């Protein structure tokens, strides 16, 4: 599968920033944000060489597709036992630009570690995963604190009208010169 970055829906600073508190847990081995429709990895983190992230991401996309198709759930959250102490947590995330995204977290640990990771994952707002770069939606001190209202709008400066050097208004004497890209006018006798 190919990797791509979706400029509108994926944060430019990556999952490492958004999921910082979650990734500090030594039992979390890999994380991927996947486009469910195409199966492409939008962003990923593999902290401890847990295998091929493309295969893990493709499995997450397929799990969300099946859960949405069979169960009719628009926002499934799945836990899949992979054998031994390995588990894959998959959570559907709404994409502001279209179909769902899947957030896949690979955990190596007992059931209590999986449940702790699930609780932490639920604390991460969907808007923080698919919002694009923003400093207002980041973990602060290991916890998510979102602003109460919308971020303040930036004032749009008005462009200044063009002025000639020295502040004088431009004046034209005679006919203005043609733009350099145009050929000179033809002179017919």
From TrEMBL:
On the tree of life, the source organism's domain of life is Bacteria
Biased composition of type Pro residues is found at 148-164, 176-189
Which parts of this chain are annotated as the region Disordered? 125-189
Where does this protein have compositionally biased stretches of type Low complexity? 165-175
Tell me the protein's name: Uncharacterized protein
Upper taxonomic classification of the species? Bacteria, Bacillati, Actinomycetota, Actinomycetes, Pseudonocardiales
């Amino acid at each position: 599968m190919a990797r791509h970055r979706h400029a509108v829906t994926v944060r430019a600073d990556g999952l490492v920033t958004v999921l910082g508190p979650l990734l500090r847990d030594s039992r979390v081995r890999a994380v991927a944000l996947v486009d469910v429709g195409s199966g492409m990895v939008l962003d990923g983190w593999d902290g401890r060489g847990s295998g091929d992230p493309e295969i893990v991401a493709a499995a997450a996309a397929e799990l969300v597709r099946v859960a949405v198709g069979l169960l009719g759930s628009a926002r499934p959250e799945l836990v899949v036992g992979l054998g031994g102490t390995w588990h894959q947590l998959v959570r559907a995330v709404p994409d502001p630009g279209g179909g769902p995204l899947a957030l896949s977290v690979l955990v190596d640990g007992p059931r209590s570690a999986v449940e702790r990771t699930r609780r932490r994952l639920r604390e991460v707002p969907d808007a923080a995963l698919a919002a694009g770069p923003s400093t207002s939606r980041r973990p602060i001190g290991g916890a998510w604190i979102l602003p109460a209202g919308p971020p303040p709008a930036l004032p749009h400066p008005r462009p200044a009208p063009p002025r000639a050097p020295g502040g004088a208004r431009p004046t034209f004497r005679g006919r203005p010169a043609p733009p350099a890209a145009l050929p000179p006018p033809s002179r017919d006798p």
